[in-house]
Amino acid sequence: MAAANSVILTPNTIEEAWQMKEKYGRDAAFMMGGTTFQLQREKGVPLPPYVIMLKALDLKTLQRQVLDGKDVLSIGADVPLRYCMNHPILKAYAPVLCRAAGAVGSPAVRNQGTIGGNIGYRKGDAAASLLALNADVHFIDEKGEQVLPLDQYLSLMQEKAALLLAVKIPLPAPALAFFEKVGSRETFSPSILTVAASADWTPSGRLKHVRIAVGGGNQTPQRMQAVESCLENQALTNAAVTTACDTILEDYAPESDVFAGAEYRKMAAGMILESALETWKKEEVSNAPEK
Amino acid sequence: MPLKNDGKIRPDGIEKVTGSLKYLTDRRMEGMLYGRVLRSHYPHALIKSIHTKDAEELPGVKAVITAADVPGLNGFGIVTPNQPVFCEEKVRYMGDAVAAVAAVSKEAAEEALDKIIVEYEELPILDTMEKSLAKEAAELHKEGNILHRAEQKRGSAEEAFASCDVVVEETYETPRQMHTYMETEGGVVVPEKNGGITVYMGTQHGLKDRFQLSRILQMEEENIRVVSSPMGGSFGGKDELNVQPYAALLALKTGKPVHIHNSRKESVRAGIKRHAMKIKMKTGADREGKLLAHQTYIEADTGAYATLGPAILEFAVEHASGPYDIENVHTKGLSIYTNNGVAGEFRGFGGNQITFALEGQISRLAAALNMDLHDFQAANMRKNESPGPLGHRIAPTNGGLLVLEAAERIRKEKEAELKEKQPPGKYIKRGIGTAVTMHGGGLGYGRLDPSGGMIRLNREGKIEGVFGFEECGQGIVAVIENTLVQAFECRREDVCFLIGDTEKVPVSGSTTASRGTSMVHHAVQRLKPLFQQQLFERAAALLDKSPADFYTGKGGLYKFETREQAITYRELAEAFPEKTLEVQTTFDFPVTPDEIDSGHFLYTFGSVVVEIEIDMRLGVVRVIDLQHAVAAGPVVNPKGYRGQVEGGGVMSIGYSLMENAAMTNGQYDTDNLDTYMIPSIQDAPAEMKVEAIEDLYENDQYGPRGVGEIGTVAVAPAIAEAVFQAIGTHITSIPISREILMKLGRKENRYEARV
């Protein structure tokens, strides 16, 4: 029905893809794996008049590279989530991203869906973990090719069009990393809540570079900066954990939907953070001789 | 002993697993048109006018029909046909049909729906039972807003409470559950040369559909052929008519085959659901733990129309005291019309809701008496010859005690296992819960419940079982095959079956109420001697022997004298090509001799043992293990038995933990499977065990009972009990609220961590 009325465009280069978007503006949308479009079609949202399929662009590279003297993991926007879930390089350097990718949809969705689509969707499970991993994104917009931190990119995308090319995760990855998704069932569920966190230890056993991101429901994953600052340069005492959990209750403002109420999401975010910090505390104890 | 895999493949197994099986909705025919139904825009409104002209003029549109095009009764409903085929003056729920179109493509049909202009005048929406019962509420039907009242009274519960040492009182709530069959409603209706039609659409009772369609179409039943198997699931949801009338009317109007297949969204919107119920119970016992009095008040949200709402309420009323001997019982129930989705037939038939409440009461009383739950249940369990739950005579049975003891044994084993397990993490609580139930089979006293079947030696020399049952995935075809193989001691390749075609099958009654297996058994037991006698007489004539010289076996008849094969079945068939060898029987489902409306006679018993883990951070309950013990007589088809009980169990994990077709202002909150969640494979325990208690009580002549429903009934109360065992809190509603569990967890963890 809707598909029959849409023109499918298949650019061969990034430039061509971007020109098509500039030409048709709001009447055109980029498509990677198409899983989000399928979800929307089932909801009765028609496809836009022009669909720009990005499959012919070569955005499938996943590699560790040195870029401007910086060591990064680069993941092409068209890399399927299934690869992210199982890839040995990611498993070694960014296991939280593997976990997040594995939490998306079902095996069929992960075969088809891509990391770029998951970010472009703005509600994907992977985005929260990438925020925690301090990822940058490489994209093209009206100003040309650019690299920006993911959180800036997510807010920029609200305003104007952009074509995501790759995600760049700086290495070494944080020593501490955490990801958890709460769905309505064990798998193949929209996320009620997604919490991702990362940090490093200072030599004196305090946290540094704390990054905490929360997403879920209809909301784009966002960093919880107030929570991050109350943990920054803190040892993981009971008091610090309590303060952080109380802060997330104040700082995080989720919405209610058919899956869960805002109150539940808030409390669950607090509980997940508490359990994540406790896991870190245990790691600290078990790694104590190294410090 | 848990049931083992017998290694046999069900007759439809390979086709289903490989996806090669063609369902009725897969049918395509030359010149076929696509039908679509226009459903109401409002949950409750007056129809001021319907304009179809613009739709009719669209290219590709072949017919647009409304109430004016219904030649016969503009209504359907198995018992009370009060659901309009097309609404004329008033709509009562979002699934109400207003018009239908047939067009050359799905797209044209879809576009035509948009062009039909219906003017409505909105009415206040009665979206809760409270609103429907309010004095000022508008009347949804001529008879008011109460579809049905049912009551059962034995002794005097009200007086007996005075002599109870402990009384517990609670209100339980259960959700509207969706059947969620993989194949949504639909198929093709073909107009025939004689003016009649052939309906290729799934149903649980082809002959009943034929009757209902004849009433709507004003057409002789003989001119309507209903082909209704196989189906991609039903669970009660396709028992009532759904889109058959629309495809039939459109096919007759256009003279072309018309295909209708509900989208999932349309299926959610128009299809029936399990009744949401609110059940208030007050139950009392003496100090020694004897149940003395039990009072129940049920409110069932039956939605806009009747279908089998009254029977479901009566089933719930009947099973309110379950398998327990209680002298003083008073149960009242109301089935209440609302502007919500129509509630009706669903696996368990009112038993699931009432058992959740009853077992909740039993657990609360045991706790209040400081008694072990099992000991309390055992002390009150019905005796072998106790009357049924309506005080009526039933087939004597010790099934209740047997499943209770099995559950207790399994529970103790699990408890020992848990002690060996690693202690759970800080936020995890573990619990084991049990529950027990009894479940009536057949339609019950006072309801026409005929059955029957036919066995013939067909032209290919196969022993063919012919039944009016339907295959909806439950495995009736394997039951027929196994029953014939056992009866004639022959090979699987010696038998075949024919079902699901009103032109070719005898009356067997509906494929509902756990009756199929039982009725196939009864029919074959009656037909076996008649059929064998005819086989033997033929062989005797051909071989110049006496009929008494033969017995049936693998591939043909054997001689007693030499134990050698005398003649094959094929040879017997080929010897008399003109004379079909065929025997037929009709009989009724066994009923109680006592005149008591809806009372059942044959009951199945089930117990459930469940191990759960609760993540107290999130209030998430995970079912780690689910085991059933079922007393339903001899197992006819081990794989089917296990599949039914395990599948029912997982369906009820959904019912207990996540499924709720909730409605706001008469509209479904969850309109598709991206929001209505059913258990995934990862929500089901990795391994489930089913223990079949096959021994029947002494002198029981009634053979195997069906197990289509029993696996669904006691799962929710077992999970609720496991929650109680894990955290000491009794829950009152399902699906179990994560928020409630989480709040309990927060309190406790704060305490443990920081004081």
From TrEMBL, chain A:
<keyword id="KW-0560">Oxidoreductase</keyword>
<dbReference type="InterPro" id="IPR036318">
    <property type="entry name" value="FAD-bd_PCMH-like_sf"/>
</dbReference>
<dbReference type="InterPro" id="IPR002346">
    <property type="entry name" value="Mopterin_DH_FAD-bd"/>
</dbReference>
<dbReference type="InterPro" id="IPR016166">
    <property type="entry name" value="FAD-bd_PCMH"/>
</dbReference>
<dbReference type="InterPro" id="IPR051312">
    <property type="entry name" value="Diverse_Substr_Oxidored"/>
</dbReference>
<dbReference type="GO" id="GO:0071949">
    <property type="term" value="F:FAD binding"/>
</dbReference>
<dbReference type="Pfam" id="PF00941">
    <property type="entry name" value="FAD_binding_5"/>
</dbReference>
<keyword id="KW-0285">Flavoprotein</keyword>
<feature type="domain" description="FAD-binding PCMH-type">
    <location>
        <begin position="1"/>
        <end position="174"/>
    </location>
</feature>
<dbReference type="InterPro" id="IPR036683">
    <property type="entry name" value="CO_DH_flav_C_dom_sf"/>
</dbReference>
<protein>
    <submittedName>
        <fullName>Carbon-monoxide dehydrogenase medium subunit</fullName>
    </submittedName>
</protein>
<dbReference type="Pfam" id="PF03450">
    <property type="entry name" value="CO_deh_flav_C"/>
</dbReference>
<dbReference type="InterPro" id="IPR005107">
    <property type="entry name" value="CO_DH_flav_C"/>
</dbReference>
<dbReference type="InterPro" id="IPR016169">
    <property type="entry name" value="FAD-bd_PCMH_sub2"/>
</dbReference>
<keyword id="KW-0274">FAD</keyword>
<dbReference type="GO" id="GO:0016491">
    <property type="term" value="F:oxidoreductase activity"/>
</dbReference>
From TrEMBL, chain B:
<dbReference type="Pfam" id="PF02738">
    <property type="entry name" value="MoCoBD_1"/>
</dbReference>
<feature type="domain" description="Aldehyde oxidase/xanthine dehydrogenase a/b hammerhead">
    <location>
        <begin position="18"/>
        <end position="124"/>
    </location>
</feature>
<dbReference type="Pfam" id="PF20256">
    <property type="entry name" value="MoCoBD_2"/>
</dbReference>
<dbReference type="Pfam" id="PF01315">
    <property type="entry name" value="Ald_Xan_dh_C"/>
</dbReference>
<dbReference type="GO" id="GO:0016491">
    <property type="term" value="F:oxidoreductase activity"/>
</dbReference>
<dbReference type="GO" id="GO:0005506">
    <property type="term" value="F:iron ion binding"/>
</dbReference>
<protein>
    <submittedName>
        <fullName>Xanthine dehydrogenase molybdenum binding subunit apoprotein</fullName>
    </submittedName>
</protein>
<dbReference type="InterPro" id="IPR016208">
    <property type="entry name" value="Ald_Oxase/xanthine_DH-like"/>
</dbReference>
<dbReference type="InterPro" id="IPR008274">
    <property type="entry name" value="AldOxase/xan_DH_MoCoBD1"/>
</dbReference>
<dbReference type="InterPro" id="IPR000674">
    <property type="entry name" value="Ald_Oxase/Xan_DH_a/b"/>
</dbReference>
<dbReference type="InterPro" id="IPR046867">
    <property type="entry name" value="AldOxase/xan_DH_MoCoBD2"/>
</dbReference>
<dbReference type="InterPro" id="IPR036856">
    <property type="entry name" value="Ald_Oxase/Xan_DH_a/b_sf"/>
</dbReference>
<dbReference type="InterPro" id="IPR037165">
    <property type="entry name" value="AldOxase/xan_DH_Mopterin-bd_sf"/>
</dbReference>
<dbReference type="InterPro" id="IPR017609">
    <property type="entry name" value="Xanthine_dehydrogenase_dsu"/>
</dbReference>
